[in-house]
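Why do we care about 3D structure at all? Because function follows from shape, and shape follows, mostly, from sequence. That is the central idea of this module. The next example makes it concrete: a single protein chain, its amino acid sequence, and then its structure expressed as tokens.
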Amino acid sequence: MIEEGRVSVNGRIAQLGEKADPARDEIRLDGELLAVEAPSVVLALNKPRGYLSAMSDDRGRKCASELLPMDAHPALFHVGRLDCDTSGLLLFTTDGELGHALAHPSHEVVKEYVARVRGRVRDDELRALREGIMLDDGMTAPAFAEVLDAGESSRVLIRIHEGRNRQVRRMMDAIGHPVRDLERTAIGSVRLEGLAEGAWRELSPEEVESLFLAEPLQ
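And the structure:
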């Protein structure tokens, strides 16, 4: 078809060996536009504090979308959220079905956080987190919790599979240790390590597949 001159790219007759990007270039066969669906992408962003998880904001506040390649992937949207004052791993995709599946409450993907909290966290308080905490919207599921270091403030590693609003902060408030700083360090097997603050990377197909393999809290 190319040798017969039936294919055009951006208004020019295509040549053998020429490359074209279906996401950017207009490709026609016999004058008819070819609708080639671009493959979906999933991106991991290390969201800094001070950025909304939203793609836009009518009040002019900074949004995570400003840190992403929106020109190349204009259909990107966030999967789940992080509070404006929480940093760390946030996922984005162009695949609506994938995003809905990952965000649905029935999909219990484990999310890991490191919280810097006020005061020294006692063993009995950790046990309460592990057994479940009563919040104003009900009892939380058991969490994994351990102290990484302690002093006038403590660093606590927490893994949960629920997605309630500001859940980790509310859990720590409930045991008397308000959060001073909070970072999400992993979603399932996708980890934050090696990703600079404000930077993004594309997930591999293996990483995307792993998000659907729900693993128990460890």
